[in-house]
C-alpha cells in the first residue's frame, strides 16, 4: 500500500506501549499472504511447494527494478499490513517525521564534521519515540544500519527488538538488511530508495558500490516478518538533495586528483568534535550504568558508571 494508505490504516490504533512479546514467525504454508505493497509492507515468505530453489534474477546494473504502478489496495491487503506483530505499535506520521528528521541531522554531522559518507540510522523503542541507539557510516563495510543492528543485538533481547523500529536515511543494502533480520528488529523505515542512491553514486564508485537489490527482496526470503515502510514521499527528495551535496563534492575531489584526507573511510576536519573529550557519537543503551560510544576508527567502547556502587 502507499505510505498515505498506511497512515490511514493505522489511525484507529491507540498509542499504548505494549510489553515485548515473543519472536513473530511467518505463517504456515496453508496461509497465503494477500500480496506485497509498494511503499509499506510486512515482508512474508511462504514455504515453497518445490524443493528446487527459484534463482533470483538481479536487475540491470544500470538501474533498480521499476516500481509497480500505483493501485488501490484491497481490504485484505490493508488488514494484512495493519495487523502487525502484537509487540509493535503502529507508527504515526508525526513519529516517522520526527525520527527521519533526527536521522538526517545525524547524517549532516557525519559528513560535515567527520567526512563520513552521507548515511545515518537510529533505533526507536517500542513506544516509537524513545531513541535507543544511533549510528552513522564508519567505512565501506561498517555501514550505519549494520553497526546499529549489531549493537542492538548486544544490548537488547530478541523479544524486545521485535517491537523496535530501525530508521535510516537510505534504504539498507543487502548486508545491512541481513543484519537487521538476524538482530530481530521488527520494523524498518527508510526515507530514500536504493534506486535514488545509485543515481547519485553512479557506477564503479569506490566510495559506494551501490547494489540493485531492494531490501524487500532480501527479506522475503527469510522466515520472519519484518515490516518495511519506505521510501517516504517528501523526505526522499530532501535526503537526496542533502546527500547529493556530499557526492558532488567527492566527485570534484576525484576530478581534481585529490584524495580524501586520512583514508577512504573518513578523517577529522578542523573543529571536529573528535578532538574534544566525549566528542564521539554517544550511544545510549537505556541502562543507567553504561555509557557506550563509537570512536572515529569504529571502535566500540563502554564505560561503567560505578558511582552507584559506592
Helix and strand layout, with pairings?
Layout: H1 3-9, E1 40-43, H2 75-82, H3 93-114, E2 120-124, E3 131-136, H4 144-155, H5 158-161, E4 165-170, H6 174-183, E5 187-192, H7 194-201, H8 215-219, E6 226-229, H9 235-255, E7 282-284, E8 290-294, E9 300-304
Parallel strand pairs: 4-5, 5-6
Antiparallel strand pairs: 1-6, 2-3, 2-4, 7-8, 8-9
Summarize the structure.
With 310 residues, this protein is an alpha+beta fold. It is 31% helix and 14% strand.
> How many strand units?
9
- Number of H- or I-type helical stretches: 9
CATH C-level class of one domain is Alpha Beta
- Under the CATH scheme, which architecture of one domain would be assigned? 3-Layer(aba) Sandwich
Q: Please mark out the parts with pLDDT under 50 across 5 or more consecutive residues, or reply none.
A: 13-24, 28-38, 43-84, 272-282, 284-290
Shape: globular
- Taking all Cα atoms into account, the compactness measure Rg is 20 Å
Written overview of the protein:
This protein has 310 residues and is an alpha+beta fold. Among the domains are: 93-255, Cytidine Deaminase, domain 2; 273-309, no CATH class. Helices cover 31% and strands 14% of the residues. It contains 9 helices and 9 strands. The protein has helices spanning 3-9, 75-82, 93-114, 144-155, 158-161, 174-183, 194-201, 215-219, 235-255; strands spanning 40-43, 120-124, 131-136, 165-170, 187-192, 226-229, 282-284, 290-294, 300-304. Strands 1-6-5-4-2-3 form a 6-stranded mixed β-sheet, sandwiched between helices. A 3-stranded antiparallel β-sheet has the order 7-8-9, with no helix packed on it. A hairpin with a 5-residue loop joins strand 8 and strand 9. Helix 3 (93-114) runs parallel beside helix 9 (235-255) and helix 7 runs parallel beside helix 9 (235-255). The N and C termini lie far apart (55 Å). Residues 13-24, 28-38, 43-84, 272-282 and 284-290 have low confidence and may be disordered. Residues 1-20, 77-89, 272-284 have a biased composition (Polar residues).
Amino acid at each position: 500500500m502507499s505510505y498515505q494508505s498506511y497512515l490511514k490504516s493505522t489511525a484507529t490504533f491507540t498509542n499504548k506501549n505494549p510489553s515485548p512479546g515473543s519472536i513473530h514467525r511467518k505463517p504456515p504454508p496453508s496461509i497465503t499472504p494477500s500480496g506485497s505493497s509498494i511503499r509499506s509492507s510486512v515482508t512474508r515468505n511462504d514455504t515453497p511447494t518445490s524443493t528446487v530453489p527459484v534463482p533470483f534474477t538481479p536487475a540491470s546494473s544500470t538501474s533498480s527494478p521499476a516500481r509497480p504502478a500505483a493501485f488501490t489496495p484491497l481490504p485484505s491487503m490493508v488488514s494484512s499490513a495493519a495487523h502487525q506483530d502484537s509487540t509493535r505499535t503502529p507508527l504515526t506520521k508525526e513519529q516517522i517525521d520526527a525520527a527521519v528528521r533526527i536521522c538526517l541531522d545525524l547524517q549532516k554531522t557525519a559528513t560535515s564534521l567527520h567526512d563520513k559518507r552521507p548515511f545515518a540510522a537510529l533505533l526507536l523503542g517500542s513506544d516509537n519515540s524513545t531513541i535507543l541507539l544511533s549510528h552513522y557510516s564508519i567505512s565501506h563495510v561498517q555501514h550505519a544500519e549494520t553497526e546499529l543492528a549489531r549493537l542492538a543485538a548486544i544490548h537488547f533481547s530478541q523479544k524486545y527488538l521485535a517491537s523496535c523500529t530501525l530508521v535510516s536515511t537510505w534504504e539498507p543494502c543487502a548486508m545491512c538488511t541481513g543484519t537487521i533480520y538476524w538482530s530481530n528488529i521488527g520494523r524498518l523505515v527508510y526515507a530514500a530508495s536504493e534506486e535514488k542512491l545509485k543515481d547519485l553514486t553512479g557506477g564503479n564508485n569506490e566510495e559506494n558500490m551501490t547494489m540493485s537489490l531492494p531490501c524487500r527482496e532480501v527479506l522475503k526470503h527469510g522466515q520472519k516478518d519484518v515490516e518495511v515502510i519506505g521510501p517516504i514521499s517528501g523526505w526522499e527528495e530532501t535526503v537526496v538533495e542533502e546527500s547529493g551535496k556530499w557526492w558532488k563534492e567527492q566527485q570534484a575531489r576525484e576530478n581534481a586528483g585529490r584524495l580524501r584526507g586520512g583514508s577512504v573511510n573518513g578523517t577529522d576536519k578542523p573543529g571536529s568534535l573528535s578532538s574534544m573529550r566525549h566528542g564521539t557519537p554517544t550511544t545510549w543503551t537505556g541502562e543507567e550504568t553504561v555509557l557506550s560510544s563509537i570512536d572515529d576508527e569504529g571502535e566500540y567502547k563502554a564505560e561503567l558508571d560505578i558511582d552507584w556502587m559506592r
